[in-house]
Amino acid sequence: MLLRGLTWLVLFQLLGTGLNVLLLPMLPGPIIGLLLLFGALLARGGVDDALSLAAGNLLRYLPLLLIPPAVGVMVYAEAIRAEFWALLGALVLPLLLAFFGTGLLMQKLIERQARRRSAP
Amino acid sequence: MTPHWQAAWQAIVHHPLFGFAITLGAYQLALAAYEKTRWMLLQPVLVSVLILVGVLLICGIDYDEYRRSTTLLSLFLGPATVALAVPLYLNLRRIRQLLWPILLSLTAGGLLATASVAALAWSLGIERTLAMTLLPKSVTSPIAMLVAEQIGGVAPLAAVFVLITGMLGAILGPECLRRLGVVHPAAQGLALGLSAHAVGTARALQEGEECGAFAAMAMSLMGVATAVLLPLAVALVA
Fold first, then answer.
1. CA distance B74 to B72
2. I need a labelling partner for B162 at 20 to 30 A (CA). Which of B69, B135, B155, B216 fits?
3. Nearest CA distance, B15 vs chain A (angstrom)
4. If we measure between CA atoms, which residue out of B237, B224, B189, B187 comes closest to residue B110?
């Protein structure tokens, strides 16, 4: 079960990689794979158990999978230290703006839509 | 005969599974610490990275060797990205109901995220290469690395900025959003996915299926839009 789902996920990633080289050099293979799988699910009209099992298990460990690339920070410690405060500002302030801006706007729009629907 | 302590230690430390083992260990330790304390600052990814950098420095292993010994993990990052299509599809009905709020928030949030980086990098006097490396920091690392290279930045450093951004976003998390009155899981997911890509999406998935699905959607749309539009915008401005 798990293996069958995993096979599908890997196949879609490989398909994405192929298309990345052939047609879409600006989109990475996994993202193309995501869009293709989403399209396939739409076309089929459902998610089978094997796929949903594999996806659920893999996504549970997503934080773990992100750790090795994150450790790469150590290689650039020197470059980061050199411009530390400017970088900190340019990293943190836009994040705060985008993070709270998007959240607040979406919350307000959801509330407005709900009010409109409940109004006669 | 004296036991060869040194040789045994070297054989363990430089075994191709050593990086894999310490990563699994550090992650479980970090996860346990987070679950016990529930401190926002103790995000498992951040704590694991700190532990691992310490261990690697003590054992005298460079990043290249560590990266090679964790190929087993990084190989699965691709299929895991593809797997995000599943929660996305399962929440399609919720997404359709909120189509206009989603499109408006994503467009506004995406523009805000990228334009504010450009404005700050310029006003803080960050040099051009570094600024170009900062611009795609809100998107998932494979896209950010590609885009950074296209617009004249440094790809591996872009991945670092992406991850720092992601970890900061995960630290802020749904807790800070709730305090500002952002209580809808869709709104929380959108904010996490848009500004903190995969790390934010992983955090959102812990919160629940719906929150995770909206984060995955925000992350992929923001990624696709950045990949297509940012190089064009930079070409137009420069």
1. 6
2. B69
3. 17
4. B224
B115-163: per-residue pLDDT in tens? 898 888 888 888 888 888 888 888 877 678 778 877 888 877 887 888 8
Residue pair B172/A99 in contact (Cβ under 8 Å)? The answer is: yes
Instruction: Report the C-alpha gap between B136 and B154 in whole angstroms.
Output: 11
pTM of the prediction?
A: 0.78
CA distance B200 to B215: 7
For A12-50, the pLDDT digits (tens) are 999 999 998 898 777 778 888 888 998 999 999 888 889
| Structure token pair of residue B76 | 């699965």
Q: Are A8 and B85 in contact (CB under 8 A)?
A: no
Query: Which residues from chain A sit within 8 angstroms of residue B215, using beta carbons?
Result: none
- Give Cα separations from B17 to A46, A81, B4, B20, B74 (angstroms): 39, 31, 21, 5, 13
* Distances from the Cα of B69 to the Cα of A74, B117, B171, B187, angstroms: 16, 35, 28, 38
User: How many Å apart are CA B109 and CA B236, to the nearest integer?
Assistant: 21
Nearest residue on chain B to A58, alpha-carbon basis: B80
CB B204 within 8 A of CB B188: yes
Question: Between the CA of residue B99 and those of A109, B29, B106, B226, what are the distances in Å?
Answer: 11, 40, 11, 20
Length of chain A: 120
Phi then psi dihedrals of residue B206, to 5 deg: -65, -30
Interface A:B, Cβ pairs < 8 A: 296
**ipTM at complex level:** 0.84
d(CA A73, CA B90): 35
**For chain B, what are the domain ranges?**
1-75, 77-238
